[in-house]
Each structure stands twice: as C-alpha cells, then as structure tokens.
Amino acid sequence: MRRNVALFALVTGLLAGLVGAAPPPPPPADIRSGFQHPGVLLDLDRIEALRRNVREGREPQTSAYRRMKESRYAADDYRPRPYRIVACPPYKNPPACTGEREDAIAAYTQALLYTVTRDPAHARRAVRIMDAWSAVLRDHTEGNSALQAAWSGSTWARAGELVRHTYEGWPVEDADRFWRMLRHAYLGEYAEEVADYNGNWDLTMIDAAMAIGVFLDERRIFDEAVRRFRDRVPAYFYLRSDGPLPVAPPGGKADTPEEIREFWFGQRTFVDGLAQESCRNFEHVGYALAATAHAAETAHHQGVDLYGEVRERLRATIELHARHQLGEPVPKTLCGGRPQLTMGPDLEVALHHLRGRLGIRMPYGQRLAASMRPAGTDDLFVAWETLTHGTGFGSCPGADRVACHDQRRP
What we know:
Elements: H1 2-18, H2 44-55, E1 58-59, H3 61-69, E2 85-87, H4 95-117, H5 120-134, E3 139-141, H6 145-166, H7 172-185, H8 199-216, H9 219-232, H10 257-263, H11 282-301, H12 306-325, H13 348-357, H14 363-371, H15 385-389, H16 401-405, E4 407-408
Parallel strand pairs: 2-3
Antiparallel strand pairs: 1-4
Helix pairs in contact: 4-5, 4-6, 5-6, 5-7, 6-7, 6-8, 8-9, 8-11, 11-12, 11-13, 12-14
Domain Alginate lyase: 103-232
Protein name: Alginate lyase family protein
Pfam families: Alginate_lyase
C-alpha cells in the first residue's frame, strides 16, 4: 500500500511539474541505491539494542535515556520556530540559527523517544517539527551558512531517517516536501570544498552530506561524501607515518612547510594524534572527531569500511587529547604547553566502534567518556550519543562485543 501511495505521488508530481507547478517529489525509497534503511548513524540492530538496554535497565543507556526524556527537547508541547531564510554571520548566533539547530535536535529527540517507546505521539511530534520547517525554509545565507546547514542538516537527516523507516503515519506528500528541503536548502551549501578553512567545517559537511545522501537514496551524493572523507581525514588527524609534516588539504593554499605550520596554528612539533585544530582548542577537535565518527558509522551501516582506513588516526587522536583533558601535564612542544582543554562529550560513536566492536583498549578515551556521561547534546549537532552508542568498558571475551559491553545497572 505504501509503495502504491508513493508511486501515485510520484506520477502526480511529475505531471504537475510539466505544467510549471511544484517540483516533483522524490522517487520511492530503495530504488537502485542499495542503501539499508534505517541507516543514518543507527541501523535496526542498534535500535533494537538500545531499546533492550533501556527496557532491561542497562547502563549507560538507562541514565542517558532519563536525561533525554527530561530535556526541553522532549517536551510534549515543544513548538518549532521555522524561518524562511536562516542567515548566520560569523561569530554571531541570531535566533534563526539557534532555532533551526534546536528544532532539528528536538525532532531527533522525539524520533528517538518513539524508537524506544513505540508511542506514536512522539513520532507525530517529530513529524510536526519537520513539517513546520519544510513548509517554510528556502535558504541559508551569510558567512556561516555552510557550517550552520551542516550542523542542522545532519540532525534533520537522522530524524527523518528514523521516522520515515520506522513509523507508518508520516503522509507521503509531507515526507516528500521534507525530502525536497534537504535536497534544495541544504546540499547546495556543501558543494564548495573549503580546503583552507579549519577542518571541522569540511568534516561536518561530509557528515551531513553522507547522511542526507542516504536519506534521499542518492548514491552519487553518498559516494562524493566518501571521496571527501578520504581526502580530508588524513589532512586533519596526523600520524608520524605521514612524514615530518601533516598532509595538506587537497586544493588548499597551504603548500610550503611554513604555510602548513601556520595552518596548524603555529605548531612545529608533530606527534601521533595531533589534530589541525589542537592548538586552537580541544573543543573543535571534538567536533571533528564526532563528525568523522558519524560519517564512518553511517558508511559502516551501508557496507563501506571507512573506519578501517582511519582507525589508527582516530585512536591516536582520542588518546592524545583525552589524556591531557583528564589532567596529564602538557609538554611545551604541544601548543606551547597551554592548549585550551575544552573537549566536550564527542567520543561515544568512535569508542563504540573502536572499543565496542574491535575491542581496542583506549584507557584515556574511556575515562574521559565515562566522566561526561550521560552525554546530552551540544546544541549543535551531537545529541544523546551515550544513549545511542554508549559502550560499557569492562572485559569483553565474547564475539558480540556490542552486546557484551552493554552492562547491567548494579
């Protein structure tokens, strides 16, 4: 029945387009793309695992679920604040920019609540928020438009993917309008590769583009995001095997050794796990780690092992930054001995794979993640990741490491 409805909408939309009406809706899902749905950050196995963990009182999911449920994003009377134009100048945070990010997180929060409880009221609230924005939004403008569209776009895609593929009550025409919003008001913002910008920009746009590509069932978008991932990640997280200097971002202007050092905020000594923004602050390194892990996790659900290509970079970066964030003295060769230790709760997804699936011991990353649990949201694009990907840190002799690491509450 749903396929017939979608086909009817497609045909009528195409006819309307021929006479100059609204653009046609998207094709039915799962045509030619080969994508697995749901498959943006979460798949059916992960959804079932988090539901089981909450139902059985396992930690860290139970505490994380409680925190999410008590947040303002979970309110029964949450009201979206859509804007036609989201204008985001650098170093400013106008109401439109804040409102868009918060509404996207609210939609994702309600989608997760539905995922856990199966109460359709939560799905209806998620739909109401997404519908409100897709009926109004037309464009992003000003200097931070690409980053803003990446933060919110990645979250919208997660919410839309969960609702579209686990809930039967989203009318086809409304889901199609949301599809068009992501296609036309977000993806275009990621078209320019910003080689000379701080790398968290490009990595966050890669995360968003990959998520939207899966939601739209457009393999070309997904494949382009994979290409950009492979180009940018080695140019952001350093390993000594790269040589005496970090890899320069493809297409950028940092070509000489001095230009590369300047791009890395004046750092002259490079050690395993150093990031391009380490000497700016650890906060932005956290954003980059989260975005990289999001993209690799989505790719993992689609059968592409990006984790395998960057595993050692992620491990080394997490351990280097976590140990100093936890208080280990910083040598003067690292950012003059005074980096800004401002990393947030951005490690859960990466640890879920490295520690949970692969069993790699990461003592500093594990301690830092545990100290920040249950992680909530940064109000940008990281939300409820202790709930969705939190991994216990005990021994794990069994083959099913994900299940093994979900520990029962004492």
